[in-house]
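Tutorial, part two.
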Amino acid sequence: MPGNSFGELFRVTTCGVSHGPGYMAIVDGCPPGLPLSVDDLLPDLRRRRPGQSAIVTQRDEADVPEIWSGVFEGLTDGTSIGILFRNTDQRSADYAEIKDKYRPGHADFTFDAKYGLRDYRGGGRSSARETLCRVAAAAIAKKLLARERISIVGYVKQIGDVRAEVAEPAAVTLEQVEANAVRCPDQAVAARMIELIEAVRKDRDSIGGICELIATGVPAGLGEPVFDKLKADLAKGLMSLPAVTAFEYGAGFAVATARGSQNSDAFVPKPNRIGTESNRHGGMLGGISSGEPIVCRVAIKPTSSIPQAQRTVTRSGEPTEIAVKGRHDPCLLPRFVPMGEAMVALVLVDHWLRWKAQCGGK
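Running the prediction step on this input gives:
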């Protein structure tokens, strides 16, 4: 099965399924000498894990990683870093009744169409649980980026029709994001978001939203001018995450109604560099980073697994109904934030290593 690896110089490969023994992540390309331990991986894994609050799925997985290779005496040794996660709280019986039914909004039908068989327990390989491998790998990427003073913060910008207006996205801190269960830096709006999620849960339904992701300290020069544009790789990385249905950066779809005279960002002198007066270009011009904060957003669909009866068909094409049992997020956004940050980190560290190898970096 191709398509299990991401990145060129910093390359991440994952394997495993949500109702199997566990997951494995292999990280190639991490330079030697980086201090690394399990404790470095835990903060973001805990932000991603299930059961962390009343508004997310209550599956009880500790998600404690085991580092099997690539680290010697507390330092990366330049070889492949192997990270293992063991599943401990599977309830595969929850899926027994639907093994021959296609869940609307899921990959059940398309897996059968492609392979002729599928793991029906929780979605198998397409389960969002696979993202714990990405988050662990990105914790390493974030450590490398931090040495270059590059940081990444994501937050929930919108849930349903409840939207936060963040005047200065680049000024949002991790502490502000983590101050509430929904991970919205506007505390008043966060309270309304939580109320909406609770109301949707009581209706046995789900709700979608938007996550905004900001990378600051990114130097000008990352990315390639043709196929491997930084914006293209960010789009691919973020769109590879489960439930993501749209990507935009900078002014995004608002450019469709703007004029060129309104949309262009004027260049101005800034301390120690050339910059732009505004940032409608979202930190990328011609697919290459400009030195301004990278600003992008993704839309996340409502959780497809809901306990309401939905119309579907069996594998043989017979009409039927399905009500999905199990433990599922009424809204994916709170747990998505560290996943989105992870993919931004993996893209940036890969392009930083490529820039350094080709152009010598700074």
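The first helix runs from residue 38 to 48. In part three we will examine how such features are distributed along the chain.
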